[in-house]
Amino acid sequence: MDFLILPERTSGNRTYGLTSVIDFGTPIGELKHILDDYGYLIDIAKIGIGSAYVTPNLRKKIELYKEYQIKPYCGGTLFEKCFYQNKVPEYLRHLRELGIDWIEISNGTLDIPLEERLQMISEIKKDFHVIAEVGSKDSNKDMDICDWKEEINLLLQAGCDYVITEGRDSGTSGIYEKSGSIKSSLIQELIKDIDSKKIIFEAPTAKHQMYFIREVGPNVNLGNVKLQDVLVLETQRRGLRSETFYVEEDECKSL
């Protein structure tokens, strides 16, 4: 159907307007069925937390994602575990053997000094596309808005393709309060001073996703999207849900 006027969406090998899903162990057969119908809506697939280390048929899963032009990578927790055990060189070698071209550098569990992360990024970017993450998984830890801005800018300057704003798969830390409510003043400040096309906002629920679509636009980069929610998210981006019904009018007003 093409008779409605809907928000224009990026397509193909997108650089923004990204949908990044989180895979917590979807079986290969089920994943194949999902991608047959909805693979064109997905840009990036994170094999969540450290699950890639114990995922059966991991190589087949990676090849399947790549068959649908989806970029797979391993969750930042696996990187942090390797960092903690001084196994980062082994981790990088394993990623190359698996054919994974993207890597997440995070400090959601460990407190890795920013200077050390920047140094690693400057070295790793020669062989990988780097995604860095800002924010802690500990909901009791909070960062000043100026610290969020500074860290994101420094990570991008160091060579990251994108920076993720921490939200967890529960939406209860980082850019969210413990209650799950969005730190809207933080988000507004970030998108005011930083190119939002370079930020992937973790938005695990429809409520979170609709906020970012209304605040940033239908081509906002969203992460930690559940595989079963991909079509609903695209429907929201297209203004075909009540909460985003007028998004195309808002887009016209901003032009």
UniProtKB/TrEMBL annotation:
InterPro entries for the chain: Aldolase_TIM (IPR013785), ComA_synth (IPR003830), ComA_synth_sf (IPR036112)
Pfam families (alphabetical): ComA
Annotated coiled-coil segments of the chain: none
UniProt similarity note: Belongs to the phosphosulfolactate synthase family.
Protein's name according to its UniProt entry: Phosphosulfolactate synthase
